[in-house]
Structures are given as structure tokens and as C-alpha cells.
């Protein structure tokens, strides 16, 4: 069934049910960013494969609302689908709901599947539509009827990590979460988000591509903890270990009834990480405490064991990246390298590292104009062949048993213009400024974002995405609660957080530049003025200096770059062959 036919079938179901507009968010019952195949609803209906967007469908219009990261990709993928791209003005805003409120008559009915919408999204839709006299039904799944070959839920095996890897036992993590619940005066807590569940239970799996997580819910009460998942995914011994930690396993599909029949007087639910269907199932007598999952902040503050493991993973990743770029340089002139083939080669090189499990997201290998698409993924139709000229952007990462990596580099393949060098150097200057930041305790992510953007803004340039995101420990590559972007998010940057710093510049139809390292927040100084923090750079991969125009850098930026590249060589040389080390020595020479 083509996308146009799927849209028509959906509209027929809307007529049958008396629905004037239907909303499809990009999500699942766990409010995940990356989805199991069963919940890739937007891709199935419209053809758009990006990780952020919302469909709104009426009988005479079907639109995809998404942000600037996906404008070009969405326009291409939606062609001929019956859907039109609607460009979001504010990333993540429910602008589609206000659009519907303006166009639908009072008495109209709008519906969505509450399993796919967070509480926050559901409330935003209701707040936009109800004042206009529009009825909202948050419990209607129209896709299951027409999606005849809808994938089943994944059945891959799961496993538990030991305390030598995680630095903290499941018992201790449960205790710490319960302490936070007491402070919030909540007797129970439902954890829906898969990375929070994985962190609390020291459990990993492969139910979602690139994310080592397991589908499940964890209902935590004062005296018991119930894990709702397919228990067959764990061995008898692992189920026994969870039982010793006080965790009982029940079937995944029992979650709804458990919530509907909960006896607790109060339950903490995270409105951004809990689906509306489960929220609405809570008995009216049970008080809902809406707050961020306690585990989200606990998980973001990496302990010394996790940090030590992550440093080790960075060495392995740096070795793979060094070998990759050397291989590119030696083979690009042959004319047989493509965006897809180099992404495959990079994954092969990472897989040679001890403890490699998977890539941490689909590799973005953007040659020339494709580098201007921040979330580009090569397809058979778009797969460009590399030539010995122009810029190549590689944004990639690995999932190792001892850490998660995420790195972006841009390299010259030859014949670079002065304009490309200037843009590259301005972006590099932003990366360096962010990496060198010194800031007082309590600083928010939007302040780090501004520090990083300042040298870019000074040249009247800018970029549409955030400057950085949290990164998990052998978990999701995008992790909250903190983020470095312009939004006024009231989350402090704290010691132990691992975050990306990744400014960029994008010239549509020409090239894109982004330089990304992961950094660890650490205490730098305590004095009469308070506690000050700074960043330790964790990523270990040379930054291409062939593209640097020194006239745009101050001496402090040149010193940082030279010191960084020298450190990269020092950390990696002993792990490389003599030939590889010689090549890297040349790449890391001081400028």
C-alpha cells in the first residue's frame, strides 16, 4: 500500500468514527525518541523517517510539522505522499494544534492515540482545542485497523550489567529513587522511559536500534517494585538477581491494569516521559504528582566507575576514527567510496574495539551539499560518490559495554575554498569557546549555548539546532535532563554530566560544518565567590587543521587546538600501528 493509499484508508476510518482531524506524534508508549519498528507510525503513513515530527490530518489537508533539522529531508521524503511539510517556528511546539483550532468549526472532533502522546503533548492539544469548542479524544488508535502487517513487539534477549561496570547496584539505585519519592510525598512512581528503566535495573537489551534498552515499565512502590516486561528475555539467573533486589516481573501487557488498580494515595509521573493513556488510567482517588523522573537526574550524574569506563571507550573510538580517516584519505581518489560504503566501513572499524555492541545512532555521512542536512542519512537514491575535493562531514558514535560515544568531524578531501576555510574556522572557534568555558555552579544550558555561539554570532552566522545534549553511559546517545540550547530550560549543569558541544554552519546546496566533542563537567575551583565548574574534553580524535584559517583565531584558540591534537596523539599512539601513528603525528602537528 503506497503512502497516498494509506492516507486515504486513514481518512476512511476517520469518517467511520466521526473524526474531523487525527494527530499522529512521533513516539511510542515510552515516549521514546528512537522507536521500535511497531511504532514507526509516521514513517509508515507518510514516508518521513526523521526522529521528530507530528502528522495532523483532516479530510482536505495532511501535514507534517517538523523543525529546521528536517526541512530538506522532509520535503524530499513527502513528495507524492499526499502530505505537505509545515515548518515549525519553535522546535517541539504544538503548532499543529493551534492550526487545527483556527480551521475546525466548533463541535468538531479531534483524536489521537494516547499510547503515542506524552501527557505534556496531550495537555497542549487540549488547551489549544477545547477553548475553540472542539472535542478531543485521546484514546483512539486508527492505524492498527489499516496496518495489516504491523510489526510485533521485539523479542530480543536482555541482560544485566554487574556493579563493576555500573558503579552502583540495583538495590542502591532503587533506594535512591525511593528517597526522592519521599521528598516529593509520592507513595508510588511509574517509570515509562526506557533509558531510566535500564539505568535503575542495570539492564540492557536491543529492543530499539542503536539504543541498548528493553521494552518495559517499572512500577515502584514503598515496599515493592514491579517490572512489566517479557520475562523470557532474561535468563533464570538474571530473574533471580532482580528478585533478590526486590523486583517482581509481570507481563508487559499487565501495565495498564496495574496502574488502573493501584492502591497508593499518590503517584509520581513525569508528564514528558509518560504516555497519556497510562496517565488517564490512574484512579481519580490517587493524587498525581507531576515531576521529572528522579532517575533522570541521577542517571545524568555519572559516577567515577562510569567515567573511568567512558574514558576507556573514548580511546577505542578514537582508534577507529583515526583508522577510518586514514582509509578515506588513501582511497578517495579511486572514486569508489560512497556515503553508504564509508558508513559501513566505520562501523566495521568500531566493531574491532573490545566490547563494541552497536552504533549509537545511524551514521550521518554527508558529502558536500549533503553535509548541510544536520540529520542526513544516505539512501540508495541519495548515495553520493566521494571525489578528491570538497568537504566531508561525519557524525557518528558507538555503543560499547563501557560507554557511549558521539563525535562529529569535517575533513577536507581536497581543493577547499577560502569561504569553506573561514566557515570551518568560525565553527571551530565556537567549539573551542564552549570547551574552554568556566562557569559558576547553577549555570543553565542556555548560558553554555550562548557562550558557544558568541564567536559565531559575531560574524553574523548562526545554526538552527542546539549546541549540545546529554549522553548516557552505555545508554541513549540523547539523554536528559539538561541540554545546551537556546530554550530557557531550568536545569543546572552539574558535575558528572557528560554533554556534547557541537556548533555548526550549514549552507544549503553547498556544504555543512559541525565539530563535536563530548565533555565532562567537573569542579574547577572553590573560593569566596562560590564554586566554579569547567569541562574536561573526553573525545579523542584529531581535528583537521588543513581547514583552519589562523587569521580568524586568537592565540588562546590556537593554543587549545595544538594542545588538544597533541593530547590526541599521546592517548592513541600506543594503540596504533607504526604506520598509523606516523600518519596521525602528521595530522596533529601544531599550527
UniProtKB/TrEMBL annotation:
Q: Write out the GO cellular component annotations.
A: cytoplasm
Q: Where is the Peptidase M24 domain?
A: 310-521
Molecular function as annotated in GO:
metal ion binding; metalloaminopeptidase activity
Pfam families, sorted: Creatinase_N, Creatinase_N_2, Peptidase_M24, Peptidase_M24_C
Peptidase M24 C-terminal domain boundaries: 531-591
Where is the Creatinase N-terminal domain positioned along the sequence? Answer: 6-130
Keyword set, alphabetical order? Aminopeptidase, Hydrolase, Metal-binding, Protease
Give the family from UniProt.
Belongs to the peptidase M24B family.
Q: What is the protein name given in its UniProt record?
A: Xaa-Pro aminopeptidase
Amino acid at each position: 500500500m503506497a503512502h497516498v493509499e494509506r492516507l486515504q484508508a486513514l481518512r476512511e476510518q476517520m469518517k467511520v468514527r466521526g473524526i474531523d482531524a487525527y494527530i499522529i506524534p512521533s513516539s511510542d508508549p515510552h515516549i521514546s525518541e528512537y522507536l521500535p519498528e511497531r511504532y514507526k507510525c509516521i514513517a509508515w503513513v507518510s514516508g518521513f523517517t526523521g526522529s521528530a515530527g507530528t502528522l495532523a490530518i483532516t479530510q482536505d489537508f495532511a501535514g507534517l510539522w517538523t523543525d529546521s533539522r528536517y526541512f530538506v529531508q522532509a520535503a524530499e521524503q513527502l513528495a507524492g505522499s499526499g502530505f505537505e511539510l509545515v515548518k515549525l517556528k519553535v522546535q517541539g511546539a504544538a503548532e499543529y494544534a493551534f492550526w487545527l483550532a483556527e480551521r475546525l468549526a466548533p463541535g468538531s472532533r479531534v483524536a489521537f492515540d494516547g499510547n503515542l502522546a506524552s501527557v505534556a503533548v496531550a495537555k497542549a492539544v487540549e488547551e489549544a482545542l477545547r477553548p475553540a469548542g472542539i472535542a478531543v479524544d485521546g484514546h483512539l488508535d486508527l492505524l492498527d485497523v489499516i496496518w495489516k502487517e504491523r510489526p510485533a513487539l521485539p523479542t530480543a534477549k536482555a541482560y544485566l550489567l554487574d556493579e563493576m561496570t555500573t558503579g552502583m547496584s540495583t538495590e542502591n539505585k532503587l533506594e535512591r529513587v525511593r528517597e526522592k519519592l519521599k521528598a516529593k510525598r509520592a507513595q508510588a512512581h511509574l517509570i515509562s522511559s526506557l533509558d531510566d528503566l535500564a539505568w535503575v535495573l542495570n539492564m540492557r537489551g536491543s529492543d530499539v536500534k542503536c539504543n541498548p534498552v528493553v521494552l518495559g515499565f517499572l512500577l515502584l512502590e514503598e515496599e515493592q517494585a514491579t517490572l512489566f516486561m517479557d520475562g523470557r528475555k532474561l535468563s533464570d539467573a538474571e530473574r533471580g538477581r532482580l528478585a533478590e533486589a526486590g523486583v517482581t516481573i509481570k507481563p508487559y501487557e499487565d501495565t495498564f491494569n496495574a496502574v488502573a488498580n493501584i492502591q497508593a494515595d499518590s503517584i509520581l509521573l513525569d508528564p514528558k516521559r509518560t504516555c497519556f493513556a497510562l496517565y488517564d488510567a490512574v484512579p481519580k482517588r490517587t493524587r498525581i504528582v507531576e515531576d521529572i523522573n528522579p532517575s533522570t537526574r541521577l542517571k545524568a550524574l555519572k559516577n567515577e566507575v562510569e567515567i573511568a569506563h567512558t574514558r576507556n571507550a573514548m580511546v577505542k573510538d578514537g582508534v577507529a576514527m583515526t583508522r577510518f580517516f586514514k582509509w578515506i584519505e588513501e582511497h578517495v581518489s579511486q572514486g569508489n567510496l560512497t556515503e553508504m560504503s564509508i558508513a559501513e566501513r566505520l562501523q566495521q572499524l568500531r566493531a574491532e574495539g573490545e566490547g563494541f555492541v552497536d552504533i549509537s545512532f545511524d551514521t550521518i555521512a554527508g558529502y558536500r551539499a549533503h553535509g548541510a542536512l544536520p540529520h542526513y542519512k544516505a539512501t540508495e537514491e541519495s548515495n553520493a560518490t566521494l571525489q578528491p575535493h570538497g568537504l566531508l562531514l561525519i557524525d557518528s558514535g558507538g555503543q560499547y559495554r563501557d560507554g557511549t560515544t558521539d563525535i562529529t568531524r569535517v575533513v577536507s578531501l581536497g581543493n577547499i575554498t577560502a569561504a569553506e576555510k573561514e566557515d570551518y574556522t568560525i565553527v571551530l572557534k565556537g567549539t573551542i569557546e564552549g570547551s574552554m568555558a568556566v562557569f559558576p555552579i547553577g549555570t543553565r544550558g542556555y548560558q553554555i549555548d550562548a557562550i558557544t555561539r558568541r564567536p559565531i554570532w559575531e560574524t553574523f552566522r548562526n545554526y538552527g539546532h542546539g549546541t549540545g545534549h546529554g549522553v548516557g553511559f552505555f545508554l541513549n546517545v540523547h539523554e536528559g535532563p539538561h541540554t545546551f540550547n537556546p530554550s530557557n530550560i531550568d536545569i543546572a549543569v552539574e558535575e558528572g554530566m557528560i554533554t556534547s558541544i557541537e556548533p555548526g554552519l550549514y549552507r544549503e546546496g553547498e556544504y555543512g560544518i559541525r565539530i563535536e566533542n563530548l565533555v565532562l563537567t567537573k569542579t574547577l575551583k572553590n573560593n569566596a565567590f562560590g564554586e566554579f565548574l569547567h569541562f574536561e574534553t573526553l573525545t579523542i580524535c584529531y581535528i583537521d587543521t588543513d581547514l583552519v584559517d589562523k587569521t580568524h583565531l586568537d592565540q588562546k584558540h590556537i593554543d587549545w587546538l595544538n594542545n588538544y591534537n597533541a593530547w590526541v596523539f599521546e592517548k592513541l599512539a600506543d594503540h596504533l600501528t607504526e604506520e598509523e601513528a606516523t600518519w596521525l603525528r602528521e595530522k596533529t602537528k601544531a599550527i
